[in-house]
Every structure is written in C-alpha cells, then in structure tokens.
Predict the structure.
Amino acid sequence: MTTSGGDLIAITMSVDHWLVIDAALDNASAVFADDHGRSLRELRALGLAALPDWPADAEGVGHGPRPGRTVTLTLTRGQWSTIASVLRREADVITAGADPGSGAAGLHRAIAAFLGSRTGDTGPPPSTPGTL
C-alpha cells in the first residue's frame, strides 16, 4: 500500500525513544506556524495516540507509560524521513548549545540512524559540531 508520502512502514521502538521524538517534534513545531508546523503536530498526535498506557488527562501525565514498553507506529517513508530530519536538526541545536556533552545529541542521532536503518533514509552527512 502506498500513500502520497511513500510506502507505509511499521517501526517498533521503545516508548522512551518515542518520547525523545515527541519532544523534538514539539520543539520544531513551535518554530513553524505554517503547514510544516501543522504536519509536525499531526505526527506528534499520531505517536501519542499509539502509546500504550498514555494518560488520558493532565493529572496522569506524571504517570505516563510504564518503563520498558514499546510502541509500533506505521507511517509513510516520508513521515519517518521528516522525523529523522527533525532529530538530526535537534541534535545540531543541542551540540551548539550550552551542554554539548550531555549525551542528548548522541541519543537524537542514534534514534535518527535507527529510523534510517528501517527506512533506507541515511540522511545528510553529519554537520560539523557547533555549526548550524
């Protein structure tokens, strides 16, 4: 089956990794008030809807999915590519920030590489640390 974004691809990952993706999509979507921002917010919504044990109200957010859970999301190749690009960009921002040694940039890049290994999207070559 294909859609406008390419083949549908199901990827299973830890909920913890999806939450990293969710945060990166949230940060990126806050920058754009246009269709791109809206598409990023829609990707976030798809992920949150698929999460096991996701709280239904604000009071439950502190008690989100139990550790060790996984989530399987089926998105188009184009949507996965967008997510990987957002993660790589977020990693560059983290690297350029005040705490480049925090490990967060490496985690973002590792998740982007994991997604690329599932979709065939290797992305652009890594940027030089400290540049945007």
Summary: Strands lie at 2-3, 6-14, 70-76. The chain has a mean pLDDT of 80. The longest strand covers residues 6-14.
